Amino acid sequence: MSQGVYDPVARALHWLVAGFAVIVVVLGWAIPGAARESGSRELLLMLHRSFGLLIIAVILFRGWWRLSHPPPPLPSSLAAIEVWAAHSTHLLLYVFFVLQPLSGYINAAAAGHVVSFFGIVALPSLISESPRLSQIANGVHLAGQFLIYALVGLHVAAALMHGLIRRDGVFERMLPRRRA
Fold first, then answer.
1. What angle is formed at CA 95 by the lines to CA 33 and CA 122, rounded to 5 degrees?
2. What pTM did the predictor assign?
3. Separation between Cα atoms, residue 30 and residue 33, nearest integer Å
């Protein structure tokens, strides 16, 4: 049973953030394996930061899009706690997909590092150097990844439950449309 689908822009933004998130995680995991002060480490950091900046831009646009283009309603068969869990998880994903890149930027800027967007343009440092602030932001960034992993895992598990077990149309709402 189909409960309506997200519009094409919402679906595209969802999958764009998902793709960027996979890229930024893979890059983040690769960084510790690169030698300090090496060109490969600097490239990994620049790419990790650049994709993080893309995520924050896309998620902010996606948040605006969602507010101006409400999603289709959830099935009436869902219990109130399930509706609350879905809305809460989505809200937390939006919040953490903003906070995570922001904490990464603060970590780098407070450590005195230039944050470059794909080597094309350097972002201005909006904060002065502060080793203490850099350490705090780094701690938030490192811990935040695990919160995001948990939220994404919950989101994917719920989607799969709806698609494979309940078959109530919730899973299909965000899938790319198939041409008939």
1. 55
2. 0.90
3. 6
CATH class of 8-174: mainly alpha
Residue 127, Cβ neighbours under 10 Å: how many? Answer: 12
Q: Annotate 81-141 with DSSP letters as a single string.
A: HHHHHHHHHHHHHHHHHHHHHHHHHHHHHHTT--EEETTTEEEPP-S---HHHHHHHHHHH
Token look-up 């879905």 returns: 86
Length of the chain: 180
Where in the chain are the domains? 8-174
- Cβ atoms 2, 169 nearer than 8 A: yes
In this predicted model, what pLDDT tens digit does every residue of 119-178 receive, in sequence order? 999 999 999 999 999 999 999 999 999 999 999 999 999 999 998 999 888 888 888 876
With vertex at residue 39, the alpha carbon angle to CA 35 and CA 40, rounded to the nearest 5 degrees, is 65
